[in-house]
Structure formats: C-alpha cells, structure tokens
Amino acid sequence: NAVSVDKTFDIDAFLARAIPTTPGLRGLHIGSGAGERGAYRPPASQTWISADIAHGPLRADIRRLPFRRDSFDVIRATEMIYFVAELTQAISECRRVLRRDGRLVITAPLLFPQIAEGDVMRLTAAGWRHELPFQSIEITPLGNWISHLVKTLEDGWRGFAVLRPLARLNVGPAYPSALGIIAR
Description:
With 184 residues, the protein is an alpha/beta fold. It contains five helices and six strands; from the N terminus they run αβββαβαβααβ.
C-alpha cells in the first residue's frame, strides 16, 4: 500500500488529482446531498450519476446500490462515509459496481460527532487500510482541524479567505482531521 503525503487541505484539489480526466469515464457520486458541494466538477466529457440516500432525483443507499455489477470506472464518496455504520457492506457494494480496474475515491473527515465513540480508529489511515479490501490504497492527509474550520468558514463567505494562512498551521493531534483515499 502506497502512502502519499500532501500538505494541502483542499478537498477539491485532491479530487482533481484523484479522479482521472479520461473522456467517456463513467462515475458515481454517492452521498451527493441536495447538490454538488465544493468547486470540483468532473470534465463534461464524462458521465456521472449523483445519488444520495435522502436528497436529489436518484435516491440510493451505499449499502444497496441499484446498479449492475461493473457499472462504474470511479465511485466518489465525499464527506459522507462517516455516516455509514455498516462500512463493510458499503465497501462491498462499491466493489461490486466498480469495474475491475476502477477506483473508489473517498474523503473522510475526523471532525464530526456522528462518529461513534470508540470508532475513530476506523477512519484513520491504519483503519482504512484494514477496512478496504483493495490491492492498492493511496492515502493523503488533507489538513488539520484549523484548516477545515477555515475552509468551512470560507465556503460560507468568501471574506473569510483572509484566514487562509492560519489553515496551514501545523497544530492539533498527530493525525490529520481528514484523509483523501484512492482505492484500486
């Protein structure tokens, strides 16, 4: 398993690196919510389906995806996987609908109270290596709690961009507060 280390805290930049720009690529954005969040958008030459358990035109549960085997080149699960209690079942479903050479692209924060007590280890780099039955796993730290606070404030109001230099401070726990994961 490869581990890459990147100092960026920008999830959009991670997605731009993690998702191939190949024309004709077929992707699934699971957990897309009521609409696209962030600045990242896949190329127009690709076909993407957005699905969410509670919002949008296609309602789908990551634990029971309504797609045939080998349907997608990429599955994107951005800022949602920490809500899934049955992670093993969700990962199995992703593997089922991914093509043989496909990739699962995950961003997983460690900031939210929805993570069950005692379950934080599951969402660390070591926990993801244990949970993901893929041949290749690349894990990129995506910042610390300050970087995510600044990004959240900035997304709400661009005026908070003046705080961006604070986001690069290396403070807080030894682990990043979010990880970008590419599993193949």
